[in-house]
Amino acid sequence: MTEKLFYQDPFQREFSASVLDCQKEKDHWLVTLDKTAFYPEGGGQPADHGTLSGVKVVDVREKNGEVLHFCNENVEIGSIVHGEIDWERRFDLMQQHSGEHIISGILCGKFGCNNVGFHIGHELVTIDFDAELSTDDVILVEKLANQYIWEDHPIQIGFPSPAELETMEYRSKKALEGQVRIVSWPGADCCACCGTHVRTSGQVGLVKLISCQKFRSGVRIEMAAGKRALTWVNRIAEQNTRVSQLLSAKPVETAAAVERLQKDVYELRGRVAELEERDFIRKAEECAGKGDVLLMEGPMSGESLRKLCGLVKEKCGGRCAVFAGADGVYQYAIGQDGADLRGFAKELNAALNGRGGGKADFVQGSVKAEESRIREFLT
Questions:
Q1: DSSP-assigned letter for residue 131
Q2: How far apart are CA 355 and CA 352, in angstroms?
Q3: pTM (2 decimals)?
Q4: 251: DSSP letter
């Protein structure tokens, strides 16, 4: 079995080891060492990356007690290699994993629910719980978790005896057999876990709960810890600064400014709709009794296109075709009372590089054709 240096000291960044085996598998060489500081994927925590004497390690997995290093080059069996961990990645993962422990422990203890899923993504961490939580619940847990972090509590990790385990209260997603590794943040969490963690809660730095959405019978929380949390907060602050500049509002008053803008937009849309309605009625009156009509209009919404076509159709006494768009790309609506336009629509689509359809007396779709070609086909 591979000696797991990451359990002896998760802060060990470099080590030397003997190469016991190296086998080619598809696009990688699977390297086995007598000892390693590379953490293999497991328990929701992604694997470490790094190098073995300059050879890239792109994945690490454990199989039957052996740690397999997925390398992009061959490594000579029997040689001594110098391993280097991608420390920025490792420390980030330890911050996320430790932050998740603290959040889950406090949340489960406070609300009597269970952590039923955990994943460290590229940007955020997702945690699933089997109970519903309110916005106030999430705010409270985030506050308590950060207070615990800033108090800088030391972590406790051990392998209790079976007798000791029977008397302990710890979180675990499944029944465990054999030796169990218990990770404890005293006062916050106690959990069976095989991952790597920071030494003290203060090294997590900060946890930020990004969102809480209903998921299955409970909720899914998105979280960021440490450097990720700082990056997220900075991104939000940058966005808010840009919004405040665009709205000429103070950064702490952007929400009120957006509400005022929404009110103005709502009122403006109502006015535009009123003017559009008048214009459509005028055009319909101008087409009264003209029979088949073709209208070429500028870009407009699908709803407006259908409304104009409907009003003109009622007045013209024939087929009404409205094309709205520009630069050879148009949306169309065509209607005629008592007619079956479906065959006509197929011919139109074939001739004008279009697509669409509908019911017998009303069809709609889009075409890619110049205005002259449309007029030639319709008239």
A1: S
A2: 9
A3: 0.79
A4: G
